[in-house]
Amino acid sequence: MAFNFRPLALPLPNRRDLIALPLVIGMLLIIGHASRQMAVPFHLGETVALSLKPADLPEYALYTVLRMLAALAASTVFTLIYAWIAANNRYAEKIMVPLLDVLQSVPILGYLSITVTGFIALFPGSMLGLQFAVIFAVFTSQAWNMTFSLYQSLKTVPRDLTEAATLYRLGAWQRFWKLELPYAAPGLLWNAMMSMSGGWFFVVAAEALTVAGQQVSVPGIGSYIAAAIAAKNLGAIGWAILAMALVILSYDFLLFRPIVAWADKFRLDNTVSVDAPRSVVLDFLRRTRLTQRLARLPAVLWEMSVRLLPAVPLHKSPQRAPSVWGDRVFVVSMVLFTLGLIVALFLVLPRDFGWLQVGHVMLLGAFTALKVFVLVAISALIWVPVGIWVGLRPRWAAVAQPVAQFLAAFPANLLFPLVVVAIVHWHLNVNVFTAPLMILGSQWYVLFSVIGAASALPSDLREAGRNLGLRGWLLWRKLYLPAVFPGFVTGALTASGGAWNASIVAEVVSWGSHTLVATGLGAYITEATQQGQTLKVGLGVGVMALYVIAINRLVWHRLYKIAATRVRLD
Amino acid sequence: MNAMNATELPSAPDAASSTPIFHLANVRKSYRTPEGSELVILDGVDLDLRDGEILVLLGRSGSGKSTLLRTLAGLVSATSGTTLHRGKPIDGPVPGLAMVFQSFALFPWLTVLQNVELGLEALKVPPAERRARALAAIDLIGLDGFESAYPRELSGGMRQRVGFARALVINPDVLLMDEPFSALDVLTAETLRTDLLDLWAERKIPTRGILLVSHNIEEAVLMADRIVILGSNPGRVISEMHIDLPHPRERESQQFRDLVEGIYGAMTARPTGRDAVRKQAPGIGLRLPSLSVNALAGLLEELDALEKSNANTRISLPELAEDMHFSVDDLFPLIEGVELLGFAQVEDGDIMLLPAGRTFVDGSLQERKQVFARHLIERVPLVARIRTVLDERFNHRAPDSRFLTELEDHLSEDEARRVLDTAIDWGRYAEIYAYDDNAEVFSLDNPEADLE
Predict the structure, then answer these.
(1) Which domain does B435 fall in, by range?
(2) In this protein, which residues make up the domain named ABC transporter (chain B) (predicted)?
(3) Tell me, what's the pLDDT at A269?
(4) What is the pTM of this model?
(5) How far is the alpha carbon of B452 from chain A, nearest alpha carbon, in Å?
(6) Domain A337-570 falls in which CATH fold?
(7) ipTM score here?
(8) CA distance B228 to B55
(9) Which is the CATH superfamily of the domain at A51-278?
(10) CATH code, B83
(11) Best interface-test mutation with B: which of A166, A167, A268, A327 has the largest number of B CBs within 10 A?
């Protein structure tokens, strides 16, 4: 007897599908449930019930993670649009890129109070307003970096590839998805993942605020910690730290590594790298039939989009030389606008604040700047030698770098209460001992940048050093320190930025009913926020942004230039 | 092997009546620098590509041949002059035109099949037909079995084959190639050349004309029906020659060798008449070739060795090129350098050492430096000027920006930097002056050369 077996219409799941399918469906269900919870009714003035039971932590952690992912999605969309416009329009470019620079320097937690009221007004009666305010805070921590990365990639697409795209008549839409975005993908994805690592700090800080004397919080790990601090519950804090660590580890395993490993596909250099990043999750997913089926969906959508688009015109519009008059009008209007702003500023400041107040705030800013400088210097003194030592030993480096990355991602504000307890208990000087809180989370950037730079030190330079008998301080001065200098500058810049941001939450810390206030600009901003004095918040934030921009131009740009010209390894 | 979508085989070209595929007349391409001076890339170029011919544009770097190619492709528009494609003016990417790039220009994140389909996708060919045509093209070019490979898994020769498949799959009317074989090793390049010529001769592709840009003289003679030689700075047509040798062409045949020699002669001939007037008096803006003193010394020693072994003071350029495994782009700057410094002389495609050159080769390190220094001051105005300025100043120091601004009156910013860097390199060897790279300053510290 001969049987004629017809193939089944449904794809037969393989073994891995049996694991993947329930996981994916389960995840979707959880997300759906949690999203509904996030939009419960809420009125300003209500206190949100927060339990301190450890059993509720997974749910709170879930909300926090969802906010992070929402912010990431929003950042991605923003990045794609903003960077594309800036890269393709000369006039837009001249405004948008410096604007990014400024936005990157504004402390995120500073203007949170202002945006909270704004968002609550947008979504009256629902908790969505608060959720969006938190998501917005995280969004701002990610979007500017990612946009910069994409913008720079769009401007440096290799010329022969763009010529091939033009020649083979790829339209703007096709060109973006087939050439420009894939080219930008490695940098963008890496940036996105690093930004997300940095974002945990902000989501935790933003989840519980005191605005205008009122506690405003959304359920999440951050608000859990705030409630634990108010209730002086050290055990709850311990549970929260544990939960956060687990969250970050699983984020790293389930999201960071697979995405970075997938981005390897877009790498431009044409060799198969021996140490290409690998991810167990990515390998697993690639082998399920489920993903193979799902992967057809983008292809179908793509075909539809291509067919809908009009054909590329045969004759492009004549290459208009940039109109000289257009340029002149633009420059003049920009100058007038800037002058107008400065004049307005000089009118507003004395009227709303008085010069004395402004001077006082500037002084506070200088004090915080000094603290940041000292802290970065101290962390450099400690971590640069350690980083070099570790980086030169590959086995140690392989362990240490992920640890340092984890520490950098872990939101340090979860550890603040422990320090505060110590300060209160032993009556320590507030100014001196709250300062390290600022660098607690960001010092690890210095460490892992230096480790990275040291492990990339060419071995022939080390051998030459050994051959010539270089030892001790001479070896460090002539070889190691100059070689890691570029990496150090990158790490120190990130650490300094992190410290400025942290100053807003580190200069006013509390434990139960004890509140410790240090002297500095961060304290000024936080206190103004708690008292609901929006004008003062604006002034504080503006002054801090000014300091950050000034230090960027005067210090970091110079250091970068030195790193790029005098200390290059090629 | 399947021929693709060929409707009818191209008939024999009738040069008199058919419109040329491309017609360029008096084409000029220039850029205006931010400072306002005009940099001319192409000057008065006349060019035709006729039906059924392979045309090779031969020239050194700086001859604007890549710009000329892109003007033909419609990627770049000419500043003035007539550019016609089959009688119609070119004002955008030319339809029915495909290009093969020196660096392959494959998209690394697409498989071979996806790369080849790219042009068809842009032309909105439906998926099924697209796939069939792409597979046929891959088959034709000999990459069957590699459809799902990524470019990073392929060797250089295979990547270029993908480049060819991508070009040929759209059934191009004209095929432009920008030094397609220079990034490949000698054997792979040879294989690809013969494969391409086979496809052309057997009419397996519906392409009517091929235009190839190259800096390899032998490759040009091997492939071309007609060769157009471009001069440099600015790019313009120096001469044109027909190659009537039947295919397959033998590199060792006498006719081949004669043609190659003739081309060397044409490319190294001193400009006469109209061209001589065009070349401005050198002055400080003299474009120095970017060469180390070691390379120049190496060439002179090689000339000396060849002179002795051939027992003849005249050495033919093709022989020299073959001996040192040099292409035109490597050899010509060297020749220019030694001629400029007065160590050798080129005439009718042969090169001879001058007495000063012999002194250099035979001398000790110190004697070499002295001869070099003397010739440098006499013949390179820029070096003389730097030394004069340093002598005049009371602290004998001058920043390089002072000379850069002067050079930028004659050259583009990049060229000025390049020329100054070469002058720094040569001047330091001759110990005419010293240079501090960190401070970017010239000085007379430790000048040992005794100059009169």
Answers:
(1) 282-452
(2) 22-257
(3) 67
(4) 0.79
(5) 37
(6) MetI-like fold (1.10.3720)
(7) 0.76
(8) 7
(9) MetI-like (1.10.3720.10)
(10) 3.40.50.300
(11) A167
